[in-house]
Structure formats: C-alpha cells, structure tokens
C-alpha cells in the first residue's frame, strides 16, 4: 500500500520498488561510511605507539574525527533540499573515500589529525540517509524506516571494532609490518566507499515519483528558488534546537564511545595488561563491538515504539517516549562509568547502549514532523547536534587529571539533564493529520 507514492510498510525483501531500493542502498551506504569514519579507532593503540601520541593528542584526534561533521551535516541537508539525496550521497561517497585512503600517508601527528578531520565529513551520510527514507515512507511508518536504516548503518561502528583488528591481524600474519598493515586496511575501506558511491547513483532515485531534476522540469515539484528561506525557518524554530541538544546527548555519546571503547577497556581494565598487543586489540574490539552491535535492532526499536506511541497518542506520544529513552541513557551511562570489572562493565554497557540507540531512533521519529518544507534543513541541524555533542564530550575526555571513569560519569549527568529539553517540543493540534511529508505546509513555531 502507498500514500502519494510513499510506502506504508517496510517490505524488506522487496527490491522492485524505488522505496525499498532507496532504503537498502541508504543503510548500506551509511554502514560503509560509518565503518570508514571509525575504521582507524580500534587501531589507535597501534597508531598511538607508532606516532608516539600523547593523551592530549589522542584527545584532539577524537575531537577532530567529529568536528568537521558538524558543518558537513549542515551542508548535506542544504544539498538534499536542492539537488536531492541521490546526487548528494554519490558525491559524498566518492569524495569521502579520498581521505579514508590517504590517512595511510600520515607519518606524524599533524598529518594524521588532518586526514582524521577530513574523514569526519563522511559522517554527513547520516543526514542523507534520514532525508532519503523520509521521502520514501509515509507518516505511519517513517519513524520505523528512519530508525531501521540509521540503526543498520550505525552498525558499521560496531562491526569496525571487530573487523578492523581482525583485518589488521590478518595482514600482519601475511608478513606486513604493523605500520603498513593499519594503512593498507584503511585503503581497502576507502575503495569500498568509492564503489558504493557508484552503485548509489545507478540504483536509486530521489523520490518515489522520480529524481528532483525531472520532477522540477515537469512542474511536479517546487523549483530550487521555492526552498529559499527554509533553512532560516528551521533555525528559528525552538523545537529544532531542542532536538539539536537531545541528539547531541544520544548520538554524540554513541560517537564518543565508538571512538574510545577499545582504548577505554585496554587502559582502564587490568585484564588487558596481561595480553599481547594484537590479542588485546582483538579482545577489546570484540567487547566494543557489542556496543555498536546493538544498532542491529535497538535503534529500530526506538523508532518502532515512537510510531506506536504516535499512532495512539499523537505527536506528544512520540516526544514523551523520547524523554523516557534519553533519561534512561543518562542513568545507564552513570552506572557504566563506575564499573571497574569486566563482569560488571559489559552488561552495564549493553544496557546503556540499548537506551542510546533507542534515543537515536526516537529523535528521528520526531524530526520529519517539525517542518515538512525544510526537511533537509531540520535533518541537517539536528544531525549536526549529534556531532557537536561528541565534540563537547571529546573536550571532557582530554581534561588533564580527569580519568575517563569520572569524565563519563559527568557526561551521564549532562545527558540526564538534557532529557528534559524534550518538553520544549510541542505541536499544533492536528499537525499529524496530513500523512504526506512532501506537503509544503510549515508548522508555525510555538510561542
């Protein structure tokens, strides 16, 4: 069944419709982008030793990996509104693959940091993924579609924690040095990103009816000039900034854990001090992969519950579920931060991860209903909030004299407080009555 060409359900095994082709290509592309974005993170113990990085320099690498994404996500949302998600994603994958491969040329801290910052731009893939699925699915299931596509894409952050140490160990086993092995591993990932960019161009279209260029030429879609001012409308809406803060607290924390998980376990748990470096990397990577692995279903669960709450209680039901999920994340993070044994840290990390992913899914189950005309702008601003949150957490982690146990506990307090920002998200009565997300109507900013 379709509403204005939009799918009203996720038919996962049906590739005959443009809706489902876009869905599958979007999450696959995001998966590879996320994999490339954090591909070097589980190998930082090796990189740190080879380049002789200090704690402060490692901190700057963590911050640099997410800083550029703030601006890239704003640009991606703007581009989606103008040229469509198909061309935007293709360009991002092809251009983003260059620094992913080029980081293998780094031979000191400055060049490594430069390429780490440039790789961060590939994180803008999230905005395009959410934009494309929002265009393809009707209001009754758009939260589920957005959360599932993003969750399966975010899974790349978990898989890379496991796969990159294994690829590194394999290359070392083939006779390559450790210095060469991590570099070759990144080249492999970069090539995969470039190939996916080509596939995205040929396998998808912007909307169920066709591409932006053809639809505008046929008069079936407003021309680019008609979208001017949309970014300003989104930026003046307090609800957008509330979601900006909320996404910084949930996705920002996910990015932070993806960046530090392996180092955190190796440096703060005595068990790893008894292992060889390669074995410590593999073991810590397997544990860290559990955090990202929750994206297999937890983010989708967050979106699904939001859709169920929305179908029963309206948009207010979606917002109340968002508060519950984010509040649970804050409490879970504080508990996880105080664990000092693996037997306690692992189950607490998994519980905390469940709430992180559900909060992510719940956030983007609300985003499509904020401003339909400025969907790309809203998605971009909120998505940028996730990275700005990661930047803030990164500065916290690099404070001298503050161990990461204490830093994460402080972060947990911040997340818990930010969860109350969800009460600033209100809607006009009947705002969800219109099922199509393509309508040009703009919800007024609540007073």
TrEMBL record:
One of its GO terms (molecular function) is nitrate transmembrane transporter activity. The keyword Membrane applies. It is a multi-pass membrane protein. It is found in: Membrane. The chain crosses the membrane at residues 25-45, 57-75, 87-106, 112-131, 152-176, 182-203, 240-266, 286-307, 319-339, 345-367, 374-396, 408-427. One of its GO terms (cellular component) is membrane. Residues 22-429 form the Major facilitator superfamily (MFS) profile domain. GO terms for biological process: nitrate assimilation. Its main location: membrane. Keywords: Membrane, Nitrate assimilation, Transmembrane, Transmembrane helix. It holds the Pfam family MFS_1. Belongs to the major facilitator superfamily. Nitrate/nitrite porter (TC 2.A.1.8) family. This is Nitrate/nitrite transporter. The lineage of its organism: Bacteria, Pseudomonadati, Planctomycetota, Planctomycetia, Pirellulales.
